[in-house]
Every structure is written in structure tokens, then in C-alpha cells.
User: Which sequence fits this backbone?
């Protein structure tokens, strides 16, 4: 669900500026900075969800707790990968920015999928 919202938001962010009335053009760097802020907000939301997941895991039965800890460890690794890709995006030149953004979206999608699986196992 959150993956769909992120994808829709990103698509809207890319398409809607062309539909708006003529306004003073924003620089590419401003658009990039806004996108990075959006991703930072998404990562902060994921962090909060992971904290909730960790709390639920500690209250689970022992066999479920063991599996949940493995899932959480994978989520932590995937979260670090997404952050690294965001950091790379920040330092990437304009010619590779779109490619790096696509790779970041893929990292975020993978993170969302792993989170959904981990959450479903705790139910």
C-alpha cells in the first residue's frame, strides 16, 4: 500500500508540473532537493513503522520472535541500502541523476515489500 502511494506520489511529482499554468521555472536543483526531502520523509515513516514492528516482535511467541528478528535484520540492511542510494543521489551529477533515482525507487520498493512480509508474519 505504501509502495503504491509512493509510486503515485512520484508519478504525480513528475507529471503534474507540465499540467500547471505557466509559473516561473524552478531550477532542476530545486526539484531534486524537493524529491530528496520527500524520500527523507518516506524513510522517516519507515523508521517509525520499523520501531512499531520491533515492539510487536518482542511481544510475540518465541518461534515467531526468532523469525521476526531475522526479518528486522534484513529490513535494517535494506534501510541502510536505501539511505546509501539517497546519499548517492544527493551527490550525483545531473547526467546520472535520473538513473540513480530509478535505483533508489527500486530500493524503496524492495524495502516496502520486505516490511510488508515481516508485518504479515507477525499477524
Assistant:
Amino acid at each position: 500500500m505504501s509502495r503504491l502511494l509512493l509510486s503515485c506520489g512520484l508519478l504525480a511529482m513528475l507529471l503534474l508540473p507540465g499540467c500547471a499554468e505557466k509559473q516561473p521555472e524552478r531550477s532542476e536543483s530545486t526539484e531534486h532537493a524537493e524529491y530528496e526531502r520527500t524520500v527523507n520523509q518516506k524513510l522517516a515513516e519507515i523508521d517509525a513503522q520499523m520501531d512499531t514492528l520491533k515492539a510487536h516482535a518482542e511481544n510475540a511467541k518465541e518461534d515467531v520472535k526468532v523469525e521476526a528478528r531475522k526479518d528486522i535484520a534484513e529490513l535494517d540492511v535494506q534501510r541502510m541500502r536505501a539511505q546509501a542510494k539517497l546519499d548517492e543521489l544527493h551527490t550525483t551529477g545531473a547526467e546520472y541523476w535520473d538513473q540513480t533515482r530509478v535505483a533508489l525507487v527500486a530500493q524503496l520498493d524492495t524495502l516496502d515489500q520486505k516490511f510488508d512480509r515481516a508485518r504479515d508474519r507477525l499477524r
